[in-house]
Design goal:
By secondary structure, this protein is mainly alpha-helical. The protein contains 8 helices and 4 strands, in the order αβββααααβααα. A two-stranded antiparallel ribbon has the order 1-4. The radius of gyration is 20 Å and the shape is globular. The mean pLDDT is 82.
């Protein structure tokens, strides 16, 4: 019976608790991770070449599979239909017999599980982590979802890819010290001029 912001605020509070727990348990210093998959594909000659790491290919593969699984779950299962009904009108969904509290809990579990997978992939890609690593990445994930369009999973993924490419270009052309500022500036501009995102559809409320 609480407001829609209550689960979000609770999740942010829980993340702060976990961050500080890891800081106390593991220390504030950066922790190294051994390289599990080394090497990569190399294209070009000896002087000019492009190299794609096997770890990068693994990240792309797992990301695409996770997106396909989530898209199938949302659009082709009973749980997905109940989730969409709860998101559109929680009160009406309850009247129709949907246990909205259970649906919200399951969605949080699914989202947390996918976030855990993303955290493992990011850690293996960077080769190190600290207690604070999830904060900036989480905000950028939110920025990517807004950039691509909320409610459209492929759009959110494309938004993440596009945001990463733009951030890399900005780091190479201007400075890597302000890449986070650049990413969040894009978020502000998208919210100002296209709140539904690049590929999202504006919500139409029928009366």
């Amino acid at each position: 019976g609480t407001t829609r912001l209550a689960p979000l605020i609770t999740a942010i509070g829980g993340s702060l608790v976990l961050q500080n727990y890891v800081q106390l348990a593991q220390g504030p210093n950066v922790q190294g991770v051994p390289t599990l998959i080394s090497g990569g594909l190399r294209f070009g000659n000896q002087n000019q070449f492009i190299q794609i790491k096997y770890m990068s290919l693994l990240i792309i593969l797992i990301s695409v599979l996770a997106m396909l699984f989530l898209t199938w779950l949302i659009h082709h299962t009973n749980l997905g239909r109940q989730s969409r009904a709860t998101q559109q009108d929680r009160k009406m969904a309850t009247i129709l017999g949907i246990n909205t509290g259970r649906i919200i809990s399951l969605v949080f579990i699914i989202g947390s599980s996918l976030a855990a997978v993303a955290g493992v992939l990011v850690t293996l890609n960077y080769g190190s982590f600290d207690f604070y690593i999830g904060f900036i990445i989480g905000i950028k994930a939110f920025s990517a979802a807004v950039f691509g369009g909320f409610g459209f999973l492929p759009g959110s993924m494309c938004g993440g890819l596009l945001l990463g490419v733009l951030e890399s270009i900005f780091s190479g052309v201007v400075s890597s010290d302000y890449k986070d500022v650049f990413a969040f500036s894009i978020l502000v501009l998208v919210l100002m001029f296209k709140p539904s995102g690049l590929l999202g559809r504006p919500a139409v409320e029928k009366v």
